[in-house]
Amino acid sequence: MAAVPRRTYLIKRAFQLRYALIISLFILLTVGISSVATYLAVFPYLSEKLANVYPQGRLITILRIANIKALSAEIIIIPFAAWFSIIISHRIAGPWYRMEAILRKMAGGGVASEISLRKGDELQSLADSLNMVIRNLKDTSQENTVSAKAMDDLLNTVSQELQNQPVDPVRIKLHLAKMHEISKNLKESFKKHHL
């Protein structure tokens, strides 16, 4: 499947927004802790040194401006962190959405196509496993279709044989033996997928 450009990044909205909130809170907490640590480590030293150079009123203004800029930097980081986490979460949500759609189609009796993920998407091993199941089901379905057709052909042949007079019991027994073999193969096929 050719890669289709992403148009919607919020595919699994609840999951992705929760993921973005967690990542944003983590980044905010990390930035906040590092800012406080930096403030406690640098500003007392800086205040002491600058107190000898600037008058007290000017120093307070400089420190206020520095605090506001530090706080502004933290506030600016949050939207970028949220957007980045939505982009990253899409690498999970996109494959998740595709696999759900395939499974719904299969549950409704539809023929599923194999899943092809974009480069960098997560859940690749799950997609590979699901593709193995899809291939196995398709192979089994084709085998069962061939067996059912062979059974129909044999039933038609036996019907025609029974219309002929005199009936040849040896030929009928031969056809019945073939039907029993096909029936046995179908039962084995069904057992493979018996839940």
Description:
The chain has two domains: 111 residues; 73 residues. It is an all-alpha fold and 195 residues long. The protein is built from four helices and no strands. The longest helix has 52 residues. It is rod-shaped, with a radius of gyration of 35 Å.
Q: Could you provide a short overview of the structure?
A:
The chain has 195 residues and is mainly α. It has helices spanning 13-51, 56-107, 124-163, 169-192. The protein folds into two domains: 10-120; 123-195.
H/E topology pattern: HHHH
Number of domains: 2
Structural class: mainly alpha
Query: What share of the residues does DSSP label as strand, in percent?
Result: under 5%
Could you give the distance between the termini? 31 Å
Number of helices: 4
Task: State the helical fraction.
Answer: over 70%
Average pLDDT confidence is 82
Number of strands: 0
* Rg for CA atoms: 35 Å
Low-confidence parts, pLDDT < 50 over ≥5 residues? none
Question: Overall 3D geometry?
Answer: rod-shaped
Strand count, sense and barrel status of the largest sheet are: none
